[in-house]
Design brief:
The complex is a heterodimer of chains A (335) and B (165).
Chain A: E1 2-7, E2 12-19, E3 23-31, H1 33-36, H2 44-66, E4 75-81, H3 85-102, E5 106-110, H4 111-117, H5 120-123, E6 130-135, E7 140-145, E8 151-156, H6 162-172, H7 179-187, H8 212-227, H9 234-259, E9 264-268, H10 275-288, E10 291-293, H11 297-300, H12 304-316
Parallel strand pairs in A: 1-4, 4-5, 6-9, 9-10
Antiparallel strand pairs in A: 1-2, 2-3, 6-7, 7-8
Chain B: E1 6-11, H1 14-25, E2 33-37, H2 44-54, E3 69-72, E4 78-82, E5 105-109, E6 122-129, E7 139-146, H3 154-161
Parallel strand pairs in B: 2-5, 2-6, 4-5
Antiparallel strand pairs in B: 1-7, 3-4, 6-7
Helix pairs in contact in B: 1-2
């Protein structure tokens, strides 16, 4: 069974092909990063139009990479949410067109769930219960995937998502867009103990996270240094800031796993590409005797393979969508 | 714009900003638009959290930076817009149909980015971090009420803001 997955929820136009739920056959990403970089952010009409232009060529390229034709595809999966409404609509409309033209089942995929389920391409069938940290530009959630595969949110950010905090501080520091990888790179040359930025709610007994105060604290410190005429070592700021974000996420997620009595942890989403987050999760899960499932970097950032994998899971249990499939920009992860 | 429609408030903490926002929210009604501006960390999301709570929103008010728009259920629903990621915005359609709808209260963060698309009737809130380095928590909130929808409510607005003036 070959499932083709289409992902257009934000700034990447991506198409993946997965065979029999676990085998990656193609993963094509037509990134819009270069397109949006001059603007320092996403421009919705540019994003939607770019998806429109890039999508069908990406489908063709994915088919070539997989060495198959459209007639070999058994089902079409597409991200139905969450994401930018206009961007989602391009993907869903194209998926409907393909499904209709080739008489294929259509699968409506939850983008966040797909970030977790993509782990099956490299680690094999997920064996819930497990704890997952889903961390990206728009989301920072600690969730449990129960025995029955249903997701339950334990907690998450009460203000800014981690990826958003990375991007905002990066922009403030004058680093290029997208900011997350820039901070990661810069932080490697810096001293992460140079500044002690706040770890909000670290020991509040909940699974809530708050990153807004951290952002404010970094800006306040930069202003103080500037006013005092002191030299600002950007690498130190980046390293200390990154360590604060990483600290809270590692601590809260692994505490959740321990308290829920679960020994499997999935690290998922675009921010899971952060090298320090991966390093800390690897070291601490190993020390705790927990199993860490973390996708390789091309499968952490938004991609089509994750949509194909999640769609293949839906197909396996007969949960196909009709051609009336609607987009939901605020689709929750739980459920 | 008459000088009477401009108010300057001072808040002393994030909680105080939320309290001031809640007081302001008590004069808001369906169809209102609150346009927020101010730098990173000035307290825009904090303001929306305080106001949304007063309007009866019970779900967490997290930053809509990524999805641009969040619809928060409440007796009068709250639409929370954040155009930080947008360098420019050509059409309101890009934000979906709930934004500026007559049956919701809309809050816009980084409103400067979409100034030409803002309705004439609006409450502008400019948040600024205090220059006072001894107290980095201080915030100055400058309120400008624009348009005929607000004219009859200026006095009520002044009254609820009294503790922070």
């Amino acid at each position: 069974m070959l499932v083709l997955g289409i992902e257009t929820s934000c700034d990447e136009t991506a198409v993946g092909i997965v065979e029999d739920r676990f085998h990656l056959r193609a993963n094509v990403i037509a990134s819009q990063v270069e397109l949006h970089a001059p603007y320092g952010g996403v421009v919705p009409e540019v994003a939607a139009r770019a998806h429109l232009d890039a999508l069908l060529p990406a489908v063709d390229t994915a088919l070539v990479h997989a060495g198959v034709g459209l007639t070999d595809i058994d089902a079409v999966a597409v991200t139905a949410g969450p994401g930018l409404v206009g961007a989602l609509l391009v993907g869903v409309s194209a998926a409907k067109g393909l499904a209709l033209a080739h008489d294929l089942p259509l699968l409506g995929v939850n983008h966040l769930r797909a970030h977790v389920e993509v782990a099956q391409l490299e680690h094999g069938e997920l064996e819930p219960p497990l704890v997952a940290l889903v961390v990206s530009g728009g989301h920072t959630s600690i969730v449990v995937m129960d025995d029955d595969g249903v997701f339950r949110e334990l907690g998450g950010t009460i203000d800014d998502a981690a990826g958003e905090a990375f991007d905002k501080i990066a922009r403030y520091l004058g680093l290029p867009f997208p900011g997350g990888p820039e901070i990661d790179r810069l932080a490697r040359e810096g001293n992460r103990d140079a500044f002690h930025f706040p770890r909000a709610l670290l020991n509040d007994g909940t699974y809530r996270l708050s990153l807004s105060g951290l952002k404010t604290a970094v800006i306040r410190e930069l202003r103080r240094l500037e006013a005092a005429g002191e030299e600002i070592v950007l690498a130190d700021v980046a390293a200390s800031f990154q360590e604060a974000i990483v600290d809270v996420q590692v601590t809260k997620t692994l505490r959740a796993a321990a308290e829920q009595g679960l020994d499997q942890v999935v690290l998922a989403g675009g921010v899971a590409a952060n090298s320090r987050l991966r390093e800390r999760f690897a070291a601490e899960t190993e020390a705790n005797g927990q199993r860490l499932l973390v996708p390789s970097i091309p499968l952490c950032t938004d991609n089509g393979a994750m949509v194909a994998a999640s769609g293949a899971n839906l197909l396996a249990v007969g949960r196909t969508a009709g051609l009336g499939l609607a987009v939901d920009p605020n689709l929750p992860l739980a459920g | 714009m008459s000088s009477r429609s401009t108010l300057t408030l001072t808040t002393t903490s994030a909680e105080d900003t939320k309290a001031a926002a809640a007081a302001i929210a008590s004069v808001l009604r369906a169809g209102d638009v609150v346009a927020l501006s101010g730098g990173l960390g000035a307290g825009k999301t904090c303001f929306v959290q305080g106001a949304a709570d007063r309007l009866g929103v019970r779900s967490p008010v997290t930053s809509p930076t990524f999805v641009l728009v969040k619809l928060l259920p409440a007796p009068v629903p709250v639409v929370h817009v954040d155009v930080y990621r947008l360098e420019r915005l050509g059409h309101l359609d890009d934000l979906g149909e709930d934004v500026f709808a007559p049956d919701v209260v809309t809050f816009v963060e980084w409103a400067d980015t979409m100034r030409p698309l803002l309705p004439d009737d609006r409450l502008e809130v400019v948040l600024a971090q205090g220059e006072d380095r001894a107290d980095p928590e201080l915030r100055r909130l400058t309120l400008h009420a624009h348009g005929p929808r607000w004219a009859p409510r200026i006095e009520a607005l002044e009254q609820v803001c009294q503790p922070w003036r």
